[in-house]
Amino acid sequence: MRTTLNISMPPSLKEKVNNLIKNNDYASVSELFRDAIRALEDQKLVEDIIESERDFTIGRFKRLRSLKDLM
């Protein structure tokens, strides 16, 4: 199911949106925004993984021996 979302933006930003659609073969503004949101989510996931790797490297982790250790 889809939901409609109305947003307002200055003309200069709308022009950038139109250029992104034209130059990146997006079919619509909606497709551009869905892709942008997915990219932001992916970026956050990568940042979380990097942070977890740093924590592991400096020894900030807990070794789990069973599911009870998660509690």
From TrEMBL:
InterPro entries: Arc_rbn_hlx_hlx, CopG, Ribbon_hlx_hlx. One of its GO terms (biological process) is regulation of DNA-templated transcription. Gene3D superfamilies: Met repressor-like. Residues 5-44 form the Ribbon-helix-helix protein CopG domain. This is Ribbon-helix-helix protein CopG domain-containing protein.
